[in-house]
Amino acid sequence: MFSKVIHDNTIPPNFLNSILTNAALYTMFKDDYEANKDYFQGLEKEEYLSAMLAFIEDALFSSNIYNIYTDPVDLEEVTEGKLTYIKNFYDDFLLDEFRVDPDSILKTKFFRGMVFANTNDLYASKTKEFGDLFEYIFKISLDYDDIVSILIKEPKRKLEEDEALSMKEFDVLCNYIKNNTKGFVSMNIVTKMLRNHAYKTNHIFDAEVVKSIVASTIGSYLETYGIVVQVEFLSELDRQEMSSYTLEPKRIILDENLIDKFLSLNYTEIFTELFFEAEYLKTRILLERNEVNYATLKSLMLLIVSKADLTRLFIDESYHPTDYDLDLKVSCFIKTLRFFSSFGVNLFSNFNDSQLAKLDLNMEEADLDEFSTKEISLDQRFFDVFEKLKDKTSLTKKYAVLGVLFDSSGNRIKTVDLIKKYMRTEHREFIEEYLDSRIVDPEMMIEDVIDLSSYRPKEESVRNFLERELKYIYIDSFYYSLESYLKLKNGPKFDKDEYLADLAVKINCIKDTPLTHRFIDCALFTIEETQQNI
Amino acid sequence: MDREKNEFPWETMDTTVLMMPEELLAYHLYRLKLEETRKREKQIVNNRKTIVSYLVREKIEKEEKSRCFQK
Question: How far off is chain A from B18, nearest CA to CA, in Å?
């Protein structure tokens, strides 16, 4: 906001500190600058203002604005008057600037710094002086929240309604994204800005906007798991130095080169890396928390099917099991493309076409029975691997969610027993979500339908749940279940015809009632169709 | 942080569930790219085989579907 001239000499911080804190020097600076310009090295006043603002912002973000290094005996005594320089600078220079050009409120990190200090500084929020200053800046001198909402109202509306933004409006939005006091923006703004960037509808992002958009995205994603995270960008050298320290668990550190790649229109790499780091972080935290929920179960299933060492993953932050790592990386790439698709930027076709063009594929090699693991349901793969594990008993004991689904010998608990045992407990929500979403083997489904159709719970809500499962869920899932299972078992030892015939017999053993009728019909039809296509 | 819950449908981004056709192809192609960087020959061969198998299967399915529209 204050203009900066780039030249060889920066103003020494000690000198800035002196001007700000020495009353006589400050008065001379404020009231008599031109007459004393030589003393101020012949630089323009604005350059000093710009440097002073940066100095104050640094102090606010330092988490130690009072420069206190040991526990003070009397906090108020030690801190009293120490922030006067901030208030003076704010009153004498910033406020005027804001009055003349309200947009400049969004051009400075000052307000964000005040909020940061309030949250992160050990002493700031405990002292009356800081509290008074905070109140003065955000409420008394101006109404910060009000003015910001007025400043961004029209640009935000235009962005959300896909109207073209003027250069000024785009700047206001970018400044808001970089400097707002919350530290993040809504996903609505993120997706619209990304879409505009991809379609070059508006103007150019800068690196700071990219950082903020990336941080907002991952913040939103991990918040669904109750995880708060900081995203930092470091150079390769700094990252290498960092690796020798034990990192805080809730930081994601990315290579700052990824920002340049994004600005050169490679959108996917930064987000793929971001989601990849987020998934590792999320997995570690979920395993640590060891709660009974679907997210934890899915994380466990993925690790178990890829035969990762769970104990090692838990204690060794540098452990990256190869197959799990690779699968996760690819999944995060797909997640990135799906993310962009969700707001109308389809990157799939371009990627697929460009990759296929580079490959010299021999179509003769095709084996129509060759399937990738992604075409097979995770639940089926998991059960297949888990039942053969030697340490399944210890896994069941260790992980609460496995302890719900398996008994102490590591054997699967039948669906009807899961419902009987857990529907009236705190795990009800998990059981409902799990039963609605999983794709298990057809035989398991048939067994379930037989068991559930003869179960008469007293509680109405459980009866309603059962009815929904039998009328809709099992019917909708049967086709996927069968298709996936045939792919899983595909091989010379597996006789598809025999299996399908056997399945048909099992279905005919289900008692035909209004609740089971549709399932029986649909399942038999699916089996017949599959038999015809073999 | 007071973010609105369910502000963005993150659950639809979950790639543990079965994927749409173009996603599946992208998955195989990206995986091949990574295997080539790691120079894991056996996995490269397997991935290529999976891709061609997938493409041929898709082609057959497409032809079968278009035949339904021909008189």
Answer: 6
Tokens of A150: 């007025």
B4, B29, B63, best to mutate vs chain A, most A CBs in 10 Å = B29
pLDDT at residue A57 is higher than 50: yes
B60 within some domain: yes
Residue B9 lies in a domain: no
- Token pair recorded at residue B68: 């339904």
pLDDT surpassing 50 at residue A119: yes
Question: Does A534 have pLDDT greater than 80?
Answer: no
- Contact list in B for residue A303 (CB cut-off 8 A) is none
Cβ contacts of A488 on chain B, cutoff 8 Å: none
**Selected residue of A223, A360, A482, A484 to mutate for chain B interface (largest B Cβ count, 10 A):** A223
Decide: residue A27, CB within 10 A, 0-12 exposed, 13-18 middle, 19+ buried: exposed
Query: Could you give the CA distance from residue A350 to residue A354 in angstroms, rounded to a whole number?
Result: 6
Spatial neighbors of A450 by CB under 8 A, at least 6 apart, are A509, A510, A511
The mean pLDDT of A308-323, rounded to a whole number, is 83
CB pairs under 8 A between A and B: 130
Answer yes or no: is B2 within a domain: no
Q: Tell me whether residue B56 is in a domain.
A: yes
Question: How far apart, in whole angstroms, are the C-alpha atoms of residue A484 and residue B34?
Answer: 26
The token duo for A274 is: 């971001």
Full domain range(s) for residue B63: 19-67
- Closest by Cα among A453, A483, A447, A487 to A470: A453
Closest to B5 in 3D by CA, of A432, A221, A274: A221
Instruction: Say how many domains are in chain B.
Output: 1
- A221–B10 CB contact, under 8 Å: yes
Contacts with B7 from chain A: Cβ below 8 Å: 186-188, 220
ipTM of this complex prediction, to 2 decimal places: 0.90
Mean pLDDT, residues A143-157 taken together? 96
Q: What is the mean pLDDT of residues A106-124?
A: 93
Distance from CA of B48 to the nearest CA of A (A): 7
Yes or no, beta carbons of A348 and B32 under 8 Å apart? no
Computed on alpha carbons and rounded to an integer, the radius of gyration of chain A in Å comes to 31
CB contact under 8 A, B52 and A339: no
Query: Does pLDDT of A8 surpass 80?
Result: no
Which chain B residues are Cβ-neighbours of A184 within 8 angstroms?
1, 3
pLDDT at A64 over 50: yes
A11: confidence class by pLDDT, cuts 50, 70, 90: confident
Q: What angle do CA A49, A50, A52 make, to 5 degrees?
A: 60
CA distance A216 to A183: 8
Name the β-bridge partners of A255.
Answer: A234
Distance from the Cα of A303 to chain B's closest Cα (Å) equals 12
Model-level pTM?
Answer: 0.89
Please name the member of A228, A349, A361 whose beta carbon is closest to the beta carbon of B22: A349
Contacts of A438 in chain B (CB under 8 A): none
